[in-house]
Each structure stands twice: as C-alpha cells, then as structure tokens.
Write a structure and sequence with these properties.
globular, alpha+beta, binds pyridoxal-5'-phosphate, 2 domains, six-stranded mixed β-barrel, eight-stranded antiparallel beta sheet, D-amino Acid Aminotransferase, Chain A, domain 2, 7 helices, single chain, D-amino Acid Aminotransferase, Chain A, domain 1
C-alpha cells in the first residue's frame, strides 16, 4: 500500500482508541521568551532529554476536542476557543508559558487539515484532536523547565455508543479521591490522570464502567465520573457540581447547562450531595469523549441505586440537542461550531 493511499478503514468497527495518523503540529518556546512559530511535520516519535521537566515532574497539560463532519459537508470543531482558554489557565497553574488562543486554534486547524483523510463520515465517529503542552527542557531540581513544546496530534475515534445509548453502571469510591482543594484538579494537568487508573481498573474488574469521586474534604459531595462531569435531574431540575477548583470545567458541561436552560429547565450549579443524587430521577455524565452517557445504576456503599435501563427523557433531549448542534443538523444559533478550512 502506498503511504498516501487511504487505508481500508472500517469506520463501523472503530472504537475510542489510538490510531497513528499522517501529520502533527510542533512548536517550541524558551522560558521567558515568545513561542516560535510552529510547523507541521510527519507524525512520529519525538525526542526528549531524560531530564525533561515533563518526564520527571509531570509539568504538562493536555486538551481534547473532536473534529466532525457536519450535515452541510464541512468539518467542524466544537467551541475550540474554550479549550484554548482552559489550556492557558492550566499553563498559569503549572508555570508554563501560555499558548495564545490564535496560535492554539491555528495549530488545531492545521492538524485537522493535514489529516483530512482520517475524518470519519458523518455519524461514524470523529477525528479526536489532542493538544499537548509540556516542559521539554532538562532540569534536575523541582522547578519549571527551561524549554517548552506544544504539539497537536489527531486520531480517528468511533462513536462512544455502539448500538445506541446504553445506561452504564458506576460505583462511588469510598477509598480514592481525584483532587483536593488548592491542587490541580481544575486544570487538565497530565499528572491528575495516572492516579485514577488503578481505581478505574478496579471498578471495571467489578463490572462497573467507571468510578464516581466524592469531594476530598467532606466525602459527601459528588465531584466527577473518571474524566467526565456529572449531572443529575430531579423533579425537572438539572443539577451539576459547582466549580470549586477540584472539578474540571468541561466544555460539554458548560454547553449542557446552557442547552438545558434554553430548553426551559431549571438549572443549578451547586454542591451535589451524594444522597440527593441517589434520589434523582436521571443521572448522566458529560464530556468530549463520552458526549452524554446515561447512568443506569450507581453503587454507593452497600446499596445499588437504580435510575432505569432506558435513557431518561431529559437526558435524551439534552443529548439530541447537543449532538444536533455539534453536527449542524440544526442551525447553530449560539455560534458554537467552527468550520475547519
Ligand atoms: C476533559 C475532562 C472532562 C470533560 O471536559 P470536556 O471539555 O467536556 O471534554 C471532565 N472531567 C475531567 C477530569 C476531564 O479531564
């Protein structure tokens, strides 16, 4: 097969997993200086000093977006300026020179444009876009690295739900926490994710799809579901945990809140007591990868709380509206989709 030939991609059997693509974006910056203009290069391994700040002390951030084929035939990205801003917030927290919104968006645009053949047909998944920002320079003591790298690579992914939305079973952790006040839970710092792998694996071994974390101070308020935000609906009120610094401010979360309000629901961002959530009519989690995943049951201590085997009516409405806007199947009146061209 020639390198440029479209590989025989079976779009219908794609899952959410890594797939090597053609090109990637790379930019460099020295501490205290401006970012050099980035450039596209062939996708491949990168070289780093063994003393790179990111390898030794986790000085790194990531982002995640989806480029999708829309109903009008164009390729669109959902609210990328929000990801750009979130990465700037993260950079501030980790002592990394921030990447401007314009540079971020240009990098994302180029990475998608030079991998166009990997964008799945509409409804068959998306091209997942992964920006990385890291301390690449060598440093021995615990301090910000002398040099930084900003990369953007892409990978095609299948739809999260094979054969429709099936409510998932989750477990509330009575042993682990994701983030503590004053820490880095509110930014997409790479170091936040490895500590969740074993808890998540343990939950999966017991038959649960993911773990739900409670807050680290009171062990009483719901925080997040793995790497997705939590929502519950009770008596027509849509609630999600308020952003207190330990919860990742999801772009999907913010969009669901706005859509719910526009659809006429009462919306609350507040501390969500686990007892309140367990008495809810519907629960779901929301994120770029998961979109909106309905929750069918939650184990909390010795009890299993059931929310039904079917997708709840409010969850379904929010899902339909969100995905219709993301794929421009309805007019994008909020200006949330950006055409890649
Ligand atoms: C990325 C992420 C989310 C979801 O954010 P989106 O912007 O909606 O993709 C939620 N929680 C955590 C911990 C995350 O890392």
């Amino acid at each position: 097969m020639l390198d440029n030939d479209l590989p025989e991609i079976d779009w219908d059997s794609m899952t959410f997993s890594y797939q090597k693509t053609d090109r990637m974006y790379v930019a460099h910056c020295k501490q205290g200086e401006e970012w050099q203009p980035g450039e596209m290069q062939d996708f491949g391994d990168i070289s780093l000093s063994p003393a790179a700040g990111v390898l030794n002390y986790g000085q790194g951030l990531f982002e995640g977006m989806k480029a999708q084929r829309a109903a009008d035939g164009s390729i669109v990205i959902f609210r990328p300026e929000r990801n750009a801003k979130r990465m700037q917030e993260g950079a501030k927290r980790l002592g990394i020179p921030p990447v401007s919104e314009a540079m971020f968006q240009d990098a994302v645009r180029q990475a998608v444009l030079e991998n166009l053949r990997w964008v799945p047909p509409m409804g068959k998944g998306a091209l997942y876009v992964r920006p990385l920002l890291m301390g690449s320079g060598a440093i021995l003591g615990v301090a910000p690295a002398p040099e930084y790298r900003f990369l953007v690579y892409v990978s095609p992914v299948g739809p999260y739900f094979k054969g429709g939305m099936k409510p998932i079973s989750l477990k509330i952790s009575d042993e682990f926490h994701r983030a503590a006040p004053g820490g880095s839970g509110g930014v997409k710092a790479i170091g936040n994710y490895a500590p969740g792998m074993v808890p998540s694996k343990m939950a999966k071994a017991e038959g649960y799809a993911e773990i739900i974390y409670l807050d680290a101070v009171h062990h009483r308020y719901i925080e997040e579901v793995g790497a997705a935000n939590f929502f519950c609906i009770k008596d027509g009120v849509v609630s999600t945990p308020e952003l207190t610094g330990t919860i990742l401010p999801g772009v999907t979360r913010a969009s669901v809140l706005e859509i719910a309000e526009d659809l006429g629901y009462e919306v609350k961002e507040e501390k969500v007591d686990v007892e309140y959530a367990m008495s809810a009519d519907e629960c779901f989690c929301a994120g770029t990868a998961a979109v909106i995943s309905p929750i069918g049951s939650i184990r909390f201590g010795d009890h299993v709380y059931e929310f039904g085997d079917e997708v709840g009516p409010v969850t379904q409405k929010l899902y339909d509206e969100l995905t219709a806007v993301q794929q421009r199947r309805i007019p994008d009146e909020r200006g949330w989709t950006v055409t890649v061209e």
